[in-house]
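About this split. The held-out portion is used to measure sequence recovery: a designer receives only the structure tokens and must propose an amino acid at every position. Recovery is the fraction of positions where the proposal matches the reference. Here is one held-out target exactly as it appears in the evaluation file.
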């Protein structure tokens, strides 16, 4: 291992005893807390959206400083708050409870095999179109070139290719909205959730989650059709780039730290992994009961985003990340 730091942290952070478990009553603008991750990412409450059931937290340190995360009110227990925090009035807490009862309800959308079959045909066309563009206007036009997988630095030429290609398709706004949201916190808000639902529409990955909170989720310009076009264009681009580079399979790693027994990975449509085993090892937090690192050889057809072509995956982190289409009942990938 190189010993290069993977993530920022605060070795002098306050002890957990200075905080108390998060409750809906802590959803008061101005309250300060921390995420219950190993490095205790500090946050500030900047808004409370009771009708849609969110508390909006601003990250106040580390790589994501300044980012705003809409977190479901029922997930406020994933955070802790200073013991001196203000408390919301009883009437406001009761309104939050009603919102949670209305919105924290399961929704399942199966990946229909017939839709998957139709999508497979569209993906072949998308890959062919992307391949022609890359070999003509893109950075592959001069012949064979390498993709450096053993690196934590993106490929500037391929990043420019993705921007150019999606620009010709009129999809750059969707790309930026999705990538920005996914990289900051894929579980915050409903941007990524909308794409997960579209994956099910396309027959690619079953949706397991909760009901839509914001009725405007699929309003233009982020309607279902444009989200689907973005999913297919992106998949086609990545497959074409790796095909032109002569890469059919990749080896990926994923580190997990858990307190209880290992279970299948939560089905969230997309799965994050890394090309770099050192990054995966950084997730094996010594404070947990069990740490496991997975390695798997996978077809490039499961790749949706990688650090090579995605500017956002290199903006604040150097994780050599790959984002995969999830596979039902897989432990890690």
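Reference sequence for scoring:
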């Amino acid at each position: 291992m190189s010993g290069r730091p993977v993530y920022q942290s605060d070795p002098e952070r306050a002890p957990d005893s200075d905080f108390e478990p998060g409750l809906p009553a802590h959803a008061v603008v101005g309250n300060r807390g921390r995420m219950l991750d190993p490095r205790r990412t500090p946050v500030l409450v900047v808004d409370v959206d009771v009708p849609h059931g969110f508390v909006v937290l601003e990250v106040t340190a580390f790589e994501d400083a300044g980012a705003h995360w809409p977190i479901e009110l029922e997930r406020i227990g994933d955070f802790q708050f200073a013991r001196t925090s203000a408390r919301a009035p009883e009437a406001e807490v009761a309104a939050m409870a009603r919102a949670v009862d209305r919105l924290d309800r399961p929704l399942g959308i199966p990946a229909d095999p017939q839709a998957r079959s139709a999508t497979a045909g569209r993906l072949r066309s998308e890959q062919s179109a992307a391949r022609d563009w890359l070999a003509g206007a893109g950075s592959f036009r001069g012949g064979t070139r390498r993709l450096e997988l053993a690196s934590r630095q993106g490929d500037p030429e391929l990043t420019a290719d993705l921007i150019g290609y999606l620009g010709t398709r009129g999809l750059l706004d969707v790309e930026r909205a999705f990538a920005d949201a996914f990289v900051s916190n894929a579980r915050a808000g409903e941007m990524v959730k909308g794409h997960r639902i579209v994956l099910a529409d396309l027959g690619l990955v079953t949706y397991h989650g909760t009901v839509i909170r914001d009725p405007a989720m699929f309003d233009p310009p982020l309607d279902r059709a444009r989200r689907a076009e973005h999913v297919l264009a992106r998949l086609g681009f990545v497959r074409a780039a790796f095909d032109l580079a002569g890469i059919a399979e990749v080896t990926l790693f994923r580190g997990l730290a858990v307190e209880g027994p290992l279970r299948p990975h939560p089905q969230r449509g997309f799965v994050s992994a890394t090309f770099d085993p050192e990054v995966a090892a950084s997730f094996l937090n010594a404070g947990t009961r069990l740490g496991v690192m997975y390695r798997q050889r996978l077809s490039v057809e499961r790749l949706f985003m990688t650090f090579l072509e995605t500017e956002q995956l290199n903006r604040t982190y150097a994780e050599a990340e790959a984002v995969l289409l999830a596979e039902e009942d897989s432990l890690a990938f």
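Annotator remark: Residues 16-104 form a domain with the SH3 type barrels. fold (CATH 2.30.30.30).
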